[in-house]
Amino acid sequence: METVAVVGGGLAGSEAAWQLASHGIRVHLFEMRPATSTPAHVTGELAEIVCSNSLGSDESGTGAALLKEELRALGSLLLQIADSVRVPAGKALAVDRALFGKKATEIITTHPLIEVHREEMKELPASPAIVATGPLTSDAMASQVQEFTGKQNLHFYDASSPIVLGESISLEKVFRASRYNRGNDYLNCPLNRDEYIAFREALLGGELASVRDFDKINFFEGCLPVEELAVRGEDTMRFGPLKPVGLVDPLTGRQPYAVVQLRQDDLAGEHFNIVGFQSRLTWGEQKRIFSMIPGLEHAEYVSHGKVHRNTYINAPACLGQMFESLKRPALFIAGTLAGVEGYTECIASGLLSARCLIARIENRPFDPPPSTTAIGALSRYLQQADWKHFQPANFSFGLLDSLVKQIRAKDARRQALVERARSDFAAWMPNP
Question: Which of 144, 198, 348, 431 is most buried, judged by most C-beta within 10 A?
Answer without folding.
Answer: 348
